[in-house]
Description:
Blueprint: E1 10-20, E2 26-36, E3 40-44, H1 51-58, E4 66-71, E5 74-75, H2 82-88, E6 91-94, H3 106-111, H4 120-125, H5 130-142, H6 158-171, E7 176-180, H7 188-205, E8 208-212, H8 216-222, E9 225-230, E10 233-239, H9 245-252
Parallel strand pairs: 3-8, 3-9, 6-7, 7-8
Antiparallel strand pairs: 1-2, 1-4, 4-5, 9-10
Helix pairs in contact: 5-6, 6-7
Amino acid sequence: MPANADSHDAMIRFRGAGVTYPNGVVGLEDVSLDIRRGEFVVIVGSSGAGKSTFLRTINGLTPLSAGSIEVAGQPVPRKQGRELRQLRARIGMVFQDFRLVRRVSVLNNVLIGRVARVAGWRSVLNLWPRADVELAFGALERVGIVDKAYTRAGQLSGGQQQRVGIARALAQEPEVILADEPVASLDPVTCHQVMEDLLRINRELGITTLVNLHFLDLARRYGQRIIGLQQGRLVFDGAGSDVTDADFQRIYGRRPEEDDFLQEARA
């Protein structure tokens, strides 16, 4: 898919986007592309290629040093403030290390996704509106763990914790979901379960979804579109069904190795 196809339907728009960290390391360099509404995009590249930087610029966790990014027509602010908080409320984030409050229930972890949309005193006192609780239960049902709603998050397996993370992102009612290496610490069967959850949510709800992945076979299998980064630069942008081993070699700057592939397993 061309990088700027159907630009009028772009959910996310990069224009000359660049990030240079205070120590001089370049995290992203002159990236320009459009991501359409409802796309499921996988980002690949070697360690240090800029994958996490790419994702974190979209919700302003990493500010740009150059260029611009728009989400649904709104520029991503470079400074903290109300506009950036409002933007982040529309973007769900799924982390490699889950970022759950382990000592509280699964349900309360999911309700954290509603914090930006309810009065602050309600979240502090754990007095959530009924509609928000019902929404949280619906999110847990969508990822298949509603039966764990009252279990402490710390008692769950890694795969279950990641599903809670996805449910929390869903509870935000987001327009975009960003998943930063969401399967890196999971076994092969659970990797597929989590990826299938994300893909099903994308297809059923039309939420634009971007996923950073290390495993190339997962990228090829689940990526509607694959973006390849190398040293912060865009070096590949195409359909997942068309990507070849030669393309991966160009993205990684070397031949793919055994550790770049997940052992095939199905849930």
